[in-house]
Structures
1.
Amino acid sequence: MSVERPKNPTLDQLRTVCQPPEVRARKNAEHWTAELYLRHVSIYLTAVLVRTRITANGVTGLMILAGWCMSLTLLIPGVWGPVLAVVLSQVQLYFDCSDGEVARWRASQSPRGVFIDMVGHHTTEALIPIALGYRVFNELSSDPASEGQAWPTLFMAACLSVLLVLNRSQSLMVHAARGMAGLGKLPDTAAARAVPTTTMIGRLRSLARFLPFHKLLHAVELSLIILLCSVISAALGSPGSAEKWMIWILLPACLLVNVGHFLSNMASSRLKA
């Protein structure tokens, strides 16, 4: 249902409607960069978008396009590909903030919009390791000394892609399981996701706060790590070498994150009737 809003809103009007406290306080849905700088800047982009005919789902489409282009830039040899990937990761986040803000301003939130947003994030994080694996595959294939590692690295990158998507999907599986069991939606707060610290899993989860490796498995963080690895490879004069080790290290680490995420979900109260 549409709501009549000013056609030329002020920034204060936009912040009141598009960035209410309950949105800014979301623990799990907000990327750490949102509070640091994204929400302070995205409102200016939203101010431009609400004056156009583009829909909130159209903005989400731009977010998805930016994410897919981020993966494609990794196919550019050298450092410039990863540099562009980092830039596009920021563009994707700005559109990701603005699509929800446009939807709130126009009161056009819908399950379809949420679904499209999830498709965007899942496909982006799936494509990044595949594009990285192909990038490394090309570099290793051109070096006779490393040619034998090319195909195994590409396969490991594909496995990493699956694990990244699985890790992101586990949180959605919890909501789906609750819905199918007739339980209500949980608030997006730390308390709702808490695991009792009296259990072994709860204590391990508390320790994980001091080494939050799982937070490195998102598109922004991955693009930054890839850029760092590409700089190291260039400095060593061995294209793809550092990126290869990145894939080899991330694969078992991501497997452990998935196992920990699964055990944490099973031990929490979220899956209890």
2.
Amino acid sequence: MCNLYTTRKSREEVAAFFRAKDDSFGSNAPEEVYPGTPGMVVREAEGERILQSMVWGFPLRLKTMSPTAKPKPVNNIADLNKGMWIGLARKPEWRCLIPLTHFAEAEGEKGSKTRTWFNVKDQPIFAWAGLWRDSAEWGPVYSGVMTDCNEAIRPVHDRMPVLLHPHEYDQWLRGSFDDIIGFQSRCFPDELIEMTRTNEPWVKRRTPEQPALL
């Protein structure tokens, strides 16, 4: 699972990189993005890319939850063929690109885990494949597609985001359902991943409850 990433670039820089119209109305997403908090998303409408602020995680209310309890943010997509996702995945209008500069995984002993960061070599901004929709609870929301890890990430975790090369952005946004299933089943090249281990504590502040993985 990926529960933390960064976008350490301005809205203007992100919009320029993805050749997108900035439709975020002056809002600033935080540099560190956690489940249930805002992040920047690139989607397509009428053939034009749009940069928009959305909440990271689809709201999920379990049957066992109290009617007054807050929904859980489902921020990772394990399988695009599952019922919660397949209807959106088949329609290009609900696909999106998630801009990021690094993503993190927790490493170490329980109670003293630290942040290990990953980035794509020679790409100051890169894209994570995602889906989005409108929700009654939080407005526009998005979630990122996961896949099996490559060897560069395996020392830390057995899953990783579905990362896209720049020439694949249009295919993710507009391609067939088989195209995007192919992205989830492929392995991103090991040699393009850079890892940075740190002494930063994994939990720096209180974060939203960990989401369910569907």
